[in-house]
Amino acid sequence: MLNARVGARTQDNVRIIAVLLVLVAMVFLAIRVVIIYHFFLSYRANQAEAFSDFNLYYYAFNVVLHSPHDPSLLYDNNNLLVFLKAMGADPSGFGILYCYPPQFALVFSPFGLMSPLAAKLAWVAMSLGLCIIGVILTAKMAYRGSERRIIALLIAIVLLSFPVLHDGYLGQSNELLFFLLATSFYLIERKHPYAAGSFLALAVVFKVTPLAIVGLLLLRREWRAVVSTIVWAIALSLFTATQLGFRVIWHYITVDVSRANAQILTMGGLPGNSSVRGTLQTLSENLGMPASESVLHATSTGFALIVCMLACYLVFRRSQDRRMDYALACITMLLASPVLEPIHMVVALLPLVIVIGTALEQLEARLSAIAPRAELLLAAIAVLLLFFLERSATYAASAFIIYVLCVARYFPRSTILPRDSRARLGNFNSHTP
C-alpha cells in the first residue's frame, strides 16, 4: 500500500513539474519568435552579413572547388579577406579566420556551388534539422519513462536555449556537432557500435576536440566503437589527402592549428570566453592585477589535466550509468578547453538534458550526492542561465553547475550514508507493511 501511494505521488509530481516547465517553455518560445523576426528584418537589409560566420566556411568550400591544386589557400588570411570584400561582407573584426580541418571543407564543399545566400539558408536549415534529430535521440536516451511531456520538456530545453539560437544566427557548426555526438551515444546504447563510430569519426575530423569521447570509449572498453571511429577517421583523412594532398593535412596539424589557437586565445575573457582561463583573466583584470600569459596558460593547463584525470577515474572506477559517462565526457571536453565561447554551450546542453532526464526518470530515488530536489533546482538554474544572452560569468556558472551535477552522480547517497543510517533505513523498510 505504501509503495503504491509513493509511486502515485511520484507520477503526480512528474506530471506537475512537466506541465509547469512546458508552460515556461511556451513563454520563451514566444520570445524566441520575436527575436527571430528581428533577425529576419536585419538580414533583409544586409544579406552579406547574414549568418556571418558561415562566410568563412563558404570561403573554404570555394577554395576546395575552385583551387584544389593550391589547398594552402584554405588558411591564407589575406586571400580570405579579399574573398569577403568581394562578397560585400565586412572583413574587419576579431576572429576572421578559417581554422577547421581540411576534411570539413571537403565534405561540405558542395555548398560552395550555391549562391552565398542560398548556401547560408541551406546550411542553417540542415543544422537546425540535424539538431532537432539529435535532441530527440538525446531525450529518448536520457528519459526512459512513459511520460511524453518529459520528452517534450527536454526537447524544449535545448531548442529554446539561447546558444542554439545564437549558433543558428551566426551560421555556426555546433548544432552539427551536437547531432553527431548525440547520434553516436544513442547508437552505442542501441548496440550499434560500428554505426556509432562513423558518426563519432565525423565529429573528430570536423572539430578534433571530440577525441575526448574516444578516450571515454576506451575507458569503457567499447572496442568495436573505437575501432570503427579510427577506421572511419583514417578513411576520411586519406580521401581528403587524395583530393587536396597530404601536405595540407600535415601543414594544418603542425602549423595552422597552433597559429589559429594563438589568435583565438587573444579574444580576452568573459563573457566571450567562459573557460577557466577567460574567467581568471577577467577576475584578475577587475581586481587591478592582470594575470600574465604564463599564469593564464599554467592555470588553464593544470585545470584541464585535473578535470581530465578525474573524469578518467570516475568513468573507470565508479561508473554506474553509461549515460552519465557520456554527460561527463562532454562537459569535461568543454571545460578542459582554454576557449569556451557562448556558442560552444550548445554541446553543454547534451549533458544537461541527460542529468535532467535521468533525474525525472527516478524522481524519488537518490541518484547523486546532491538531494533530488536540490539537483533539479541546480539544473533549473543552469537551464535558466542558458535561456538568455551571455552576461559576465553566466555561461561559466552554468557550465560549472552542469559539471558539478555530473560529478555528483558518481557519488550516490548509498555510498556516502553512514553505516548506522543505512541500518536504520533497513530496519524501517523491514517493518513497513
TrEMBL record:
It is a multi-pass membrane protein. One of its GO terms (cellular component) is plasma membrane. GO terms for molecular function: hexosyltransferase activity. It is found in: Cell membrane. Pfam families: GT87. Its EC number is 2.4.1.-. Keywords: Cell membrane, Glycosyltransferase, Membrane, Transferase, Transmembrane, Transmembrane helix. The keyword Magnesium does not apply. The chain crosses the membrane at residues 16-40, 117-138, 150-170, 194-219, 231-253, 295-316, 346-363, 370-389, 395-412. InterPro entries: GT87. Belongs to the glycosyltransferase 87 family. This is Polyprenol-phosphate-mannose-dependent alpha-(1-2)-phosphatidylinositol mannoside mannosyltransferase. It comes from Caballeronia terrestris. The lineage of its organism: Bacteria, Pseudomonadati, Pseudomonadota, Betaproteobacteria, Burkholderiales.
